[in-house]
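Wait, can you check?
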Amino acid sequence: MTEELLSLPVPSVPAGDRGVAWLRANVVRFSNGAEHVRRRALTEKLLDGVNATTLDELATQLGLPGSLPDIAKITYHPHEPVTAEADAAVERLAGDHGEEAAARIGLLVQAWAATHALAEHLRTGNPTPPVPITRRAAEGGVIEVGLEGHPFGHGPHACPGRAPATKIAKNMAFTAMHHQDEPLVLPNAWDYASAAALHAAGFLAIGTTSLGVAAAHGLPDGMALAGQQAIALAALLKDLPCPVTVDLESGFGQDPAELVASLDAAGVNLEDGRPHGLAAPEEQARIISRVKERAPGVFLNARIDTHWHGIAVEETAERARRYVDAGADGIFVPGLTEPRDIEKLAHLAPLNVLAQQRTPRELGNLGVKRISTGSLLFRAALQHTVATARAVRDGGTSAALSYAEVQALISPGTRSGAASEAGTGSAGSSRAPGR
């Protein structure tokens, strides 16, 4: 029944030649029939080639740089009151008052509202859709149609900007997750099924583990050999209805800035460890700066490998300062366990540590903002796999997901269409395990 209601025309809006009235009367959102077809084609053309990681970037790529303060003032929907401030904001942006100008402004207005609502939805895991209702014209007047259980931007008027809006919203949500009172507990997956299972279990963001990805493909970790596999996994995980951060080691021998820009990931880990030592801090700072220039909305977690090498916390802190000054959004120090050292580094930027004996609350009290499981889950899965096989052989019992449960995890419904919403290091590697 909902699908039938959604197929009804959208309510018409009065004609207007200036301000919000002009905007409403000339955008695809409030059009029907031939006007809708024409204006949708124009909107899709404007979005062609857009690859923004922030709303500011989107505004620039749509030809309206610096417009967000005005965009935020515009009351867009017909049921919202129009203010003089909103009219003035539209006029400052309107230019020739043509359909293309309306399309650019309309895209940004919708992106502003949608990305903020969707980002909050993703950050909190609120089951209520970020856009709970839509309006349609029916006999007897305008009706409201509930969107519970429907994907973001669903229906005959499906939002043409759903993909870039979702990408930006995931970036916003993931960054916000590092600035909460309680630390973000981030599990690390090694394939689509493990990531989908973790998200279904209630985790609001997922990371990848380089050891898990490399080992699952018969490759050693930390030697820049699993780049193709890590990038392929990132492409699969972009459709999960939650933010995903990707472990890129030190870039797999590619230009990290171009690599990060090519991914649809809300975050990345980039480390200063190399297969045979540590990069010079100034070199790593330059890499971080280039990445943030190229993909400013992607959360860059600067991994500092000093503790794997037994280097004093003073050098760790100095590297952290350099990386944060270069634009890093957070720092990750695997091997960091001493409370005094944790507190010393936590004030520099959102601090990420590996899971340890302390509870999330205890680590949060020390200033930690993110707790990663690293390779722990992958190693535990291997152990449980062997234990299960032994139980079959020896007559024991073991728990497992059902066939149907696994099928459900990887069904299209788990993907973005429904999103509104201790081992040893590899031989020759200078890095300890744990990612």
